[in-house]
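input
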Amino acid sequence: MARRLPASRWAHSLGTARVSRALAPRLGVDPAKAWVAGLVHDIARDLPAVELLSLAGRFGILVDTVEREAPELLHGPVGAELARLELGVEDPEILDAVARHTVGGAGMRPLSLLLYLADFIEPNRHFPGVEQVREMAARDPELAALWTMEKTLTYLFREGLPAHPSTLEGRNSLLSRLVKEGRWRPWEGGAQDARCHYDRCQAGGNETGQEEQ
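output
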């Protein structure tokens, strides 16, 4: 992989692998699998759009409207096939994680959710609020993954860009489960203030930030 990827992509892959392995025990994931998933997840990231579309057709991957307009989103599912064919990765959990790390999806396995999050917060990522997400991930990776999905959707909506249906389905699926488990409470503030909401949940407060009676 180090010879296959540009230096910056390899550095990102190493960072993702390290974060995945570090957070793996919090989600009951095998650290060795998390490490491999992180290393190989971007195997197809630098392929040209025309080649991604061609490989998707060769591998029998269904391409939806959003992916046809933004073929780079296909580097997840195409990458899973390349990891299997060219690197000999056969583990279904790793392949599922690689396939889903770009747009997420409903009912994601723990390793898939972990890779989705690690790809977003690895040390080479720099954006406002990333340190807060890293802190949240260290305490509760699933809540951090939900926050990540909501931040992604908020960005796409704000910029007038198409959102992939799988990201919305993944967000709704994870949100529903965390609400049922009492780990997340809907409120009126929206996703952009999710971290504040998270902190209030952890403190046992309500939407106004005051302690519940």
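quick obs: Confidence is low (pLDDT under 50) at residues 188-193, 200-213.
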